[in-house]
């Protein structure tokens, strides 16, 4: 049986709500990092466009390669939709080879460096799926610890975020990601984020 279909314990629910679904104060950043997806694309694009209209980023990188089900890369689909909704094409950097979160970051950093200079970027907003949550900035922190990181999560579930455990599919996705955290830390794929006490500021 798929372990992700298990019923989470009360302790797991509390830990995930407190430590995985991190709400970071949002303020204007130098860069929006849009992690590619095949699920909830419309929600991702909506949020990216809203952040642009509200003045929350100067540049953005959209990262995601070709995955099963389409001949187009995730980057092409998402970036094209953002441009169609009014985000200027010339502020969008593109990475179209990544097939996982680690590759999103590893393949994107040289592109960001060549276009903008990593040293010129001081703050990044990570935009991705609710269930992956903290793993986005943890992956970025492993490879780019110097920048300030903020997290924005989106999904199409009607269930309120804190009640994820009451929806079978939402719960399965959440537990699947939560179960990756400690093994990935042990393997050096991700780094602890936020730093201890950072959430208390």
Describe this entry's structure for a reader.
- By secondary structure, the protein is of the alpha/beta class.
- It has one domain: Rossmann fold (3-Layer(aba) Sandwich).
- 38% of the residues lie in helices and 16% in strands.
- The protein has helices at residues 10-20, 41-53, 74-84, 101-115, 135-143, 168-178, 181-187; strands at 29-35, 57-63, 92-95, 123-129, 148-154.
- A five-stranded parallel β-sheet has the order 3-2-1-4-5, with helices on both faces.
- Helix 3 (74-84) links the parallel strand 2 and strand 3.
- It is globular and about 45 Å long.
- Mean pLDDT is 94; it is low at 197-201.
Topology, pairings included?
Blueprint: H1 10-20, E1 29-35, H2 41-53, E2 57-63, H3 74-84, E3 92-95, H4 101-115, E4 123-129, H5 135-143, E5 148-154, H6 168-178, H7 181-187
Parallel strand pairs: 1-2, 1-4, 2-3, 4-5
CATH class: Alpha Beta
Q: What's the rounded overall pLDDT mean?
A: 94
What is the CATH topology classification name? Rossmann fold
Q: How many beta-strand segments? A: 5
Question: Which range does the strand content fall in?
Answer: 15-25%
Which descriptors would you attach to this protein?
5-stranded parallel sheet; single chain; 201 residues; 5 strands; disordered C terminus; DUF218; alpha/beta; YdcF family protein; Rossmann fold
Outline of the structure:
With 201 residues, this protein is an alpha/beta fold. Helix content is 38%, strand content 16%. It is built from 7 helices and 5 strands, in the order H-E-H-E-H-E-H-E-H-E-H-H.
């Amino acid at each position: 049986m798929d372990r992700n279909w298990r019923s989470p314990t009360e302790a797991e629910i509390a830990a995930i709500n407190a430590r995985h679904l991190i709400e970071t104060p949002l303020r204007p950043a130098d860069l929006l990092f849009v992690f590619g997806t095949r699920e909830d694309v419309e929600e991702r694009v909506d949020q990216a466009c809203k952040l642009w209209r509200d003045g929350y980023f100067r540049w953005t990188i959209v990262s995601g390669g070709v995955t099963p089900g389409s001949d187009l890369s995730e980057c092409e689909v998402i970036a094209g939709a953002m441009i169609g909704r009014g985000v200027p094409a010339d502020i969008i950097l593109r990475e179209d080879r990544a097939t996982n979160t680690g590759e999103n970051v590893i393949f994107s950093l040289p592109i960001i460096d060549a276009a903008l200079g990593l040293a010129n970027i001081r703050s990044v907003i990570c935009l991705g799926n609710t269930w992956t949550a903290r793993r986005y900035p943890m992956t970025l922190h492993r490879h780019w610890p110097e920048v300030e990181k903020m997290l924005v999560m989106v999904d199409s579930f009607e269930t309120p975020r804190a009640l994820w455990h009451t929806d079978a599919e939402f719960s399965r996705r959440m537990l699947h990601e939560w179960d990756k955290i400690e093994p990935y830390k042990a393997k050096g794929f991700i780094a602890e984020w936020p730093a201890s006490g950072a959430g208390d500021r």
